[in-house]
Structure formats: structure tokens, C-alpha cells
Amino acid sequence: MAAAVTTTSSDRMEQLKEFDESKMGVKGLSDSGISTIPSIFLHPPETLSDLKSSTTSCGTGIPVVDLSNLHSDFHRPKIVEQIREAASSWGFFQVVNHGVPVSVLDETIAAIKAFHEQPGEEKAKYYKRDQEGHGVMYSSNNDLYRSQAACWHDSLQLWMSPQPPKAEDIPEVCRRQVVEWDVHAKKVADTVMELLSLGLGLEAGKFKELTFSDARAVVGIIYPPCPQPDLTMGITSHTDPGIITVLLQNQVPGLQVKHGDAWVDVKPLPGGLIINMGDFLQIVSNGEYRSVQHRVLANASNEHRISIVTFFNLTKWRELGTYGPLPELLSPDKPALYRDFTLQQFYDNFYSKGLDSKSLIERIKITTCS
Ligand SMILES: O=C(O)CCC(=O)C(=O)O
Ligand SMILES: [Fe+2]
User: Fold this and answer.
1) Taking every annotated instance into account, which residue ranges of this chain make up the domain Fe2OG dioxygenase (predicted)?
2) CATH number of 7-364
3) Interface pTM (ipTM) of the complex?
4) Looking at beta carbons, which pairs linking 258-263 to residues 24 or more positions away fall under 8 Å?
5) Which pLDDT band holds residue 6 (cuts at 50, 70, 90)?
6) Which residue puts its alpha carbon closest to atom 3 of ligand 1?
7) pTM of this prediction?
8) How many CB atoms lie within 10 A of CB 201?
9) 236, 288, 291, 321: least surrounded by Cβ within 10 Å?
10) HEC secondary structure over 219-256
């Protein structure tokens, strides 16, 4: 830890650049057999002391919703209610029997792992930074130069919509699987958004009308084994900015969700998919659905943790270029909790991750003096 205290900011900048320019990623560091992590990965004591505190493991952690009887008139309202309750109280749930074949889940995880396990020179061709909204980007720590401390993961980010990448721009080792996964993840998200719409008392197709899935990124993350998992993080605590996120993970644990004052472990459920609400959904639902803090611990096991995270957001902005709580959800009893926000504010928040942790939600919350 002494290194972190004595490192000057210019030394730190040099080290960040050296790591970035090596394009070796965290996977490269992990493979090199180091027994101590470079100081750029050391997190401040406030972050580290919170790692041990109030972690609870209860059952699978977050609610599990079985979608197998979705088309039965008897079961559907119960499923709508389970999802509404989970999205309001936890902001996270796991779906099972969602219709995506287990073979597709397994192949997608294997393909992302295979990408990250390629020789460094092969991956380096895709290594870049600060390319947002389109294309394919392999990188380590998207916010490397903005965050307080680097995290123990690398990622391959592919924007699948509104402008899908050319097939030849997707790394061949995972090309077919990523394209196939995107179709399945979108289908699951369509179903979940219909149920979430019904849960708000809206038409099932409301979020589709808002083009909720038209800006879409698939991010394949690797969390390599870390020699000092108590000194760093896999990903620091954050909320996701968009509408919803669909998360597929392998069986190596690490994801934690904040529930009340506790950090709750999310147990990977074989065949399950994790769904979480983003800031945008919290705002347009006028706080009915919650975008909840989550984080990933640095990987203490000796196997890679793999997650494939698909972020959903809309492309269609209302004529005025602003959004806010949906008018149909407001009444004298339920006044707007948030002010309207602009596309610019949304993107400023989206890309400021690491700069400051204040979310868009905090910025536009209406405070009442009583
Ligand atoms: O890898 C995970 O399990 C979570 C990743 C995550 O929260 C994110 O990329 O926003
Ligand atoms: Fe996240």
C-alpha cells in the first residue's frame, strides 16, 4: 500500500500510459505470473474497507422469476407482479426458463473467453479507447484515465445498434456467437420490457414505441484471477445509465448488488440471466423501478470470470429533445420526482463514469421543502 501513498500523479500518469500502450490488458498482467499488482490498481482505503462490510449471502441473492408459463392467462399476471416487485425493491432479478437454449448461453461465454485468451498481438489489433456509440473496441478499463484507480478487468465492446458493425470488423473467434447472442438478448429484453410496462399499468408495447432497444451494446468482460483481490476491484460501485441491462455470466462469482445497507452476493444460477434497471428507467417510471448500485469484486479464484453485458437504450428522443417521468404515470397523488433532462445531460452522465459518481438521477431529482 505504501506505493500508492508515495506515487506522485505524474508517476501515476506515466504508469497508466505504459500499461495502456502495452495493450496487454489485465489478462496479460495476470498471465505474466505477477504476485503483486501494479500501484495503478490499488484502490483507496474507503473503497477497500467497504469490501468486507455487511456482505450477506442469502439464497440466490436477488429474486428469481420463472418465465416458463408466460403465455398462460392464469400465470401471466403473477409474473407481471413478481417482476414489478423485484424491479421496485431490488432493481435486479434473475430470469429462468427465458427460452434461450443453454447451448447458446454456453457458446457465447466460451466465445468471449476465447477472444480474451487469444495471444496479445491478436487482441492488440482491436485495442482502442474512447470510441463510443458505434463499432468494436477492445480495451482495459474504459475509464482508465478518468478513474481514481484501475480495475481488474478487460472488455470487448460491440455496438450492435443503431449501426451494426460490419461482420468482418467483429473478431472472428466470437463473430457468429456475438451476432446470435444479440438477437437472443434483445428478445429476452423485449419480453421483460413488456412485463415491466404492464407492471406500470401501461400498454405492453409502450417501451417498444419509445425504441428502448435501438441503441444497444454487447460488452464481453473478462475478470482474470487477481493475485491481491483485497487491494483492488473487478468494477467499482455504479448504476447503469440506460433502460435495462441483460447480463450473462459464467459460474465464477463476483457480482454484488446493494440492497438496503448490505452488499448481497449474486449467485450465478445455471441457465439464468440477470436483468437490472438503469437510471433512465428509474426516471421515466417516476421512481417506480429502481436503478441500483452494483459492483464486481476482484477475482479471487483461479478461473476467469466472464460476463456478457448487453446495455439497452433508446434512439428516439421526443421532439423537444427532453425526457422525464412519463406523463401517464403522474397524478396529484404521484407528482413528478424528477425534472426533464436533455439528451446532452444524459450523454454527459453516460460518459462521465469515473469522473464523479453522481448519477443523472441525483442531478435532476426534485427536492421539496416541507
Ligand atoms: O460483469 C458484471 O457482472 C457486471 C458488469 C457491470 O456492471 C457493467 O459493465 O456495468
Ligand atoms: Fe453495471
Assistant:
1) 211-314
2) 2.60.120.330
3) 0.99
4) 258/292, 258/293, 258/294, 259/90, 259/292, 261/54, 262/54, 262/55, 262/56, 263/50, 263/53, 263/54, 263/55, 263/56, 263/295
5) low
6) 255
7) 0.94
8) 11
9) 321
10) EEEEECCCCCCCCCEEEEEECCCCCEEEEEECCCCCEE
Could you give the CA distance from residue 189 to residue 270 in angstroms, rounded to a whole number?
A: 19
Contacts of 47 (CB under 8 A, 6+ apart): 149, 233, 236
pLDDT digits over 72-127, tens only? 999 999 999 999 999 999 999 999 999 999 999 999 999 999 999 999 999 999 99
Grid cell for residue 59: 439464497
Q: ω into residue 162 within 30 of 0, thus cis?
A: yes
CB 284 within 8 A of CB 242: no
Identify the residues whose C-beta falls under 6 Å from ligand 1.
219, 221, 235, 240, 247, 249, 255, 294, 296, 307, 309
Q: How close is the Cα of 369 to the center of ligand 1, in Å?
A: 36
Closest ligand 1 atom, residue 274 Cα = 3
For residue 57, report the distance from its CA to the centre of ligand 2, in Å.
20
Q: Beta partners for 159?
A: 217
Residue 366's Cα: distance from chain center in Å? 26
In sequence order, the β-bridge partners of residue 249 are 307
User: Where do the domains of the chain lie?
Assistant: 7-364
Helix, strand or coil for residue 199?
helix
